[in-house]
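Example record

One chain of 306 residues, shown exactly as stored in the release files.
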Amino acid sequence: MKNILVFAILALLVSCGSVEKSVKESMEYLASDELQGRATGTEGIEKAAVYIENYFKDNNIKPYFETYRDSFNIGEIVGYNVVGVIEGNDPNLKNEFVILGGHYDHIGTGKEVNGDTIANGANDDASGTIAAMEFGKYFAKSKSNKRSILITLYAAEEMGLKGSAHLAERLKNEGMNAYTMINFEMIGVPRAADKSMAYMSGYNRSNFAPTLNRYAGEEVVGFFPKAKEFQLFFRSDNFPFYKAFNIPAHAISTFDFTNFDYYHHVDDEADQMDYEHMASFITKMIPALEGMINAPTREVVLTENE
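Predicted structure tokens for this chain:
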């Protein structure tokens, strides 16, 4: 028994180390000056989209549509979500979809600091984008998901959730059987030691958090009292999916407005991210997601409103 425990701990450490390396590599590109802050409609966000598409291809995450791109227009601006799918392995449950996402756009430029005007958007939201990519890589490799999984990365979040709203409506109109949606928003920095690792917007709108925590074997996702005050449920890319499908749809974050000073700031850079924390969060979320995705029935349901 002791040897089994030791091997399990060693396996977890190796897994975290591998994830940390992969996360850092993606972050150092997506939050680099070369991408010029990833504003929707720019050359920088095009480079980000190509990087994500290549990541999907390299890790056997298939396009959900004819290509990876779901294009839309905002006036003269063309935006595109990047959408991949990992088909479920159960003949019946594979027709139900769990949607995981994050927004890969940012604001482009910000107030100049020491000659720097590029708002790189490392925490906001390259961090959440990379988490969704890593989950996609894990399930594409393990093939352990009974339900199908969509990995959905959105443009134009910073313009008012335009990308996620477009995709949610498209999927609804196509008749998708959507079960749940989780949006990963700013998971690049750790919370205080006496707080839960992460928190969920709209905590009381469903039993999502306790379900995830049960499969994780610990409280990974907790309650953040200020989430309702700040209206976070309505301010992130989960909301269009809740609105379109009337399903449990939440944002999970580790940024709580006290632990990072560079929101929409030019110093939101790759070297400010805590990669050990990010790897730990991703690693702990995998069994939580796996349990929920593979449950024989739809355990996660809407409850009371906040």
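Notes: The domain at 2-294 is CATH 3.40.630.10 (Aminopeptidase).
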